[in-house]
From TrEMBL:
Organism in which the protein naturally occurs: Cyprinodon variegatus (Sheepshead minnow)
GO molecular function, one term: carbohydrate binding
Pfam families xrefs: Lectin_C
UniProt entry keywords in alphabetical sequence: Disulfide bond, Lectin
Superkingdom per UniProt: Eukaryota
Annotated ranges, domain C-type lectin: 46-162
InterPro entries: C-type_lectin-like, C-type_lectin-like/link_sf, C-type_lectin/snaclec_domain, C-type_lectin_CS, CD209-like_CTLD, CTDL_fold
Record-given protein name: C-type lectin domain-containing protein
Entries under PANTHER family matching the protein: MANNOSE, PHOSPHOLIPASE, LECTIN RECEPTOR RELATED
């Protein structure tokens, strides 16, 4: 059964709901603009974090030191959305904050957490596949095609730093 006794208020309620929706949408847009403006110059916002891609290359340790000097660390990838963003953001092979320096085969992020999702290229990580020319491969990098590979930490690549925006501290 349809109640037509209150037909006059239905369009008014629809207009009120529309106005409320538009108000919330505008607030969301304002918040997104606010977030974009809160990352330092040269940094890019994604999902409430700030990201920096180096324009120079260096070893994994040099990249990490540069990130730390910026109040950040090498990127720790938490989910597929972030992985997809990093893949687009990384123009070249780029260091991420993942390594197995401490124990071969036990990959850990720079924040101390274990790797609980992965995007390794087929047959990786392989620690150089036993070929002496590759050496020991204890550090991870991302390819632009969104997969990871292990590489000697001494190799010279760009890196991606990640930090929380200033307003979150």
């Amino acid at each position: 059964d349809v109640d037509f006794s209150n037909r006059k208020s239905q369009p008014i309620n629809s207009v009120k709901r529309w106005r409320k929706f538009m108000s919330m949408w505008k607030m969301g847009n304002l918040f997104a603009k606010f977030l974009r403006k809160t990352c330092p110059t040269g940094w890019t916002n994604f999902s409430c974090s700030c990201y920096f891609r180096s324009t120079v290359t260096g070893s994994w340790d040099e990249g990490r030191q540069d990130c730390l000097s910026r109040g950040a660390d090498l990127v720790v990838i938490k989910d597929k959305d972030e992985q997809d963003f990093i893949s687009r953001f990384a123009k070249e092979k780029t260091w991420i904050g993942l390594n197995d320096k401490e124990t071969e085969g036990s990959w850990k992020w720079v924040d101390g957490t274990s790797m609980n999702l992965s995007f390794w290229i087929k047959d990786q990580p392989d620690n150089g596949g036993g070929d002496p020319k590759w050496g020991k491969e204890d550090c991870a990098h991302v390819y632009a095609q969104s997969q990871w590979n292990d590489l000697s930490c001494a190799a010279s690549l760009q890196w991606i730093c990640k930090k929380l925006p200033p307003w979150s501290a």
